[in-house]
DNA sequence: GAGGAAAACCTAACGGCGTTAGGTAAGTCA
DNA sequence: TGACTTACCTAACGCCGTTAGGTTTTCCTC
């Protein structure tokens, strides 16, 4: 038939692309995210470096593809955790999805560094690559909004302020963990095991109890 | 005299070392921390690359020197801010020194990345280079301890838990700012302007009010 | 001032890198 | 079978960090 060959060829091509990305992730895990080398990828695939340019126009394009994939994975990890949780309580739901998110970041430190730090010299993600990560952020905003709607958070928590603080805090804990104790598990990590407390801090601060907790700035 | 010449020579040598480090910082500011190149440094100094090896045995040694210097600078920035502040109230003192620390990090993003993220592929700071940063951390621990002693913080705040959370939160806010909006000022930065609120969260959570605020973990 | 040591800097070279240009062999389809 | 496309190759360019070894400048001692 006419389409069989073509299909097989494009399928093989897709397989090679997947192989390249997988090898790139492997190499970054051992050598560091910024130390990815086209030559090393080619070597591991039994190719010469120029052959890689049949699949990606540059090293930055590999970073870009991985950035996008990381965004998709993290978005799905969060959504899956929420879907599996059998509770309607947004506070409990948040505990579960933050734990899932944190575990995912610890198990995929390469993706985390690529997504949350901007540490690779010449690389800036393309808009398409950026989209999934932004969707994940929008998921989070919606989640905080349900907390507001159900009366367990003040409205600021789901605004720009709350979202920025939420991501700063959770991201900060994960960053410290990865930077200082990268091999620890979610339960043992000196920083990451404090994530529930960090979350408590957020929910307590934005608790809509009588009186405004958020005063105090002296100027 | 016999020492005059020697002194001048070592002085000139020290000047060259300073020049190298200054140029390295400049280049990292424009090209990215991990993109530092010996050749570019040499070019800017009107040298050939191998000549740099008279002053530093490797590129990693330059990173190491800058890591150490960054630690010293940040330690002194914090101490100076506390010394200048004319208050004994540890809460107010913390507001002031965190602001100073944050401003410093925004104005010295290269140092911040070097110190707080571990993003340069082959580089691991030597123990000597690490010492000043550790002293700064110890300063912070002592500061939190005075808060505990004066009764405005629960004891956990000055323990491993509180210290880890404090650095995660402040570091997280700064990291987000630098990653997402690096050109903003302390007052305008989308994340960094929330630093007082983040600090409030910490102090409120560890406030020694009646009852234990830190319950809630479901497991 | 002359001699000699040491420091500062150089060129040449090695092996690696990302990338481009251009060629060859195999797979695919009319 | 012949045309086309794909997958891969070699050769090359200009970078890079680093080492080896030579030359010039600077300084101390006599």
Automatic annotation (TrEMBL), chains A, B:
| Taxonomic path | Bacteria, Bacillati, Actinomycetota, Actinomycetes, Propionibacteriales
Instruction: Name the SUPFAM superfamilies for this protein.
Output: Homeodomain-like, Tetracyclin repressor-like, C-terminal domain
Q: Does the keyword Transcription regulation apply?
A: yes
The record ties this protein, via Pfam families, to:
TetR_N (PF00440)
> Species name for this entry?
Kribbella sandramycini
Give one GO molecular function term: transcription cis-regulatory region binding
Which UniProt key words apply to this protein?
Answer: DNA-binding, Transcription, Transcription regulation
InterPro entries named in the record = Homeodomain-like_sf (IPR009057), HTH-type_TetR-like_transc_reg (IPR050109), HTH_TetR (IPR001647), Tet_transcr_reg_TetR-rel_C_sf (IPR036271)
Q: What is this protein called?
A: AcrR family transcriptional regulator
Asked if Transcription is a keyword of the record, the answer is yes
DNA-binding region extent = 37-56
Supply the PROSITE patterns for this chain.
Answer: HTH_TETR_2
Question: The HTH tetR-type domain covers which part of the protein?
Answer: 14-74
